[in-house]
Backbone:
């Protein structure tokens, strides 16, 4: 598939998947991740999210276990990231002609019984790559997308104030597309596409590498030398992605990227009108949640 066809498909749906091209022992890598993670300390993600020294740590929630800032942690992970970044590089260059930079490499482990993460959008200028570390063909416990929503002029949260939409019923209606495939399958997506994660209703764990990529002008983080030295010089695509060096392509048209499909000035008045219409609903939902549901949860704890 040439770059024009790739971009057309990506631009249409807000995400694009590619089959496995990486040949490693995925079972051994999963075992390494689980064994090594036992020695990692829990961290406060909000406090270190954009630190340049990128401290390795894990975050445990009802939605699963995340190991963040894994750059240089396990060699096979770096190899996977380098290979997949190389596969998507032309598409990323085409999508972000002003340049781009990797800001995070994390591992997500979803275990049986873990909660879902409702559909949402992320920070402006953010894109992501996911890499499956095991064969996964179930809708449960995997990233899901509502195709085409990256083209909406405003995000759902901006309009309604609702942070997340439950995935269960949306999936039952057949509206969602899930990230599935053999181990090593990867997918590139725009974080302005409504996306989330299904609850894990299986009896298996699902392992995924998650890479955050930003438009160079909007990147909230830059790494220092101590982080860059963790990556072998042979991982050329990965290193360039961390530094943003030589990733800008002046030959690409700025009209051919997703950034220009969002939040244009002509939609501002429409946004204000819709926002005012949804204000009562937003107020009602927030009141019900914070005044009643949270209180009920405390009673039954």
Residues:
């Amino acid at each position: 598939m040439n770059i024009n066809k790739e971009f057309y498909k990506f631009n249409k749906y807000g995400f694009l998947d590619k089959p496995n091209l990486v040949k490693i022992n995925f079972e051994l890598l999963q075992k390494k991740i689980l064994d090594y993670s036992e020695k990692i300390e829990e961290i406060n993600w909000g406090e270190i999210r954009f630190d340049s020294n990128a401290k390795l740590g894990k975050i445990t929630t009802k939605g699963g276990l995340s190991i963040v800032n894994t750059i240089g942690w396990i060699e096979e992970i770096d190899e996977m990231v380098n290979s997949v970044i190389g596969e998507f590089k032309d598409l990323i260059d085409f999508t972000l002609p002003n340049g781009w930079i990797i800001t995070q490499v994390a591992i997500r482990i979803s275990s049986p019984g873990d909660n879902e993460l409702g559909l949402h959008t992320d920070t402006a200028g953010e894109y992501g790559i996911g890499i499956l570390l095991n064969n996964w063909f179930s809708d449960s416990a995997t990233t899901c997308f509502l195709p085409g929503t990256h083209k909406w002029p405003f995000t759902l949260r901006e309009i309604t104030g609702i942070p997340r939409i439950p995935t269960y019923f949306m999936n039952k209606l057949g509206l969602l597309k899930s990230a599935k495939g053999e181990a090593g399958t990867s997918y590139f997506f725009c974080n302005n596409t409504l996306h989330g994660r299904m609850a894990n209703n299986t009896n298996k764990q699902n392992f995924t590498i998650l890479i955050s990529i930003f438009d160079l002008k909007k990147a909230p983080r830059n790494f220092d030398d101590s982080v860059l030295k963790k990556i072998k010089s042979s991982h050329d695509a990965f290193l360039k992605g961390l530094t943003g060096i030589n990733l800008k392509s002046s030959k690409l048209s700025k009209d051919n990227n997703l950034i220009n499909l969002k939040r244009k000035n002509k939609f501002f008045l429409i946004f204000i009108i819709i926002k005012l219409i949804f204000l009562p609903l937003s107020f009602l939902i927030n009141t019900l949640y914070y005044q009643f549901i949270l209180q009920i949860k405390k009673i039954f704890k």
In short: Confidence is low (pLDDT under 50) at residues 250-265. The chain has two domains: 3-263, 265-301. The first helix runs from residue 3 to 13. The domain at 3-263 is CATH 2.60.120.620 (Jelly Rolls).
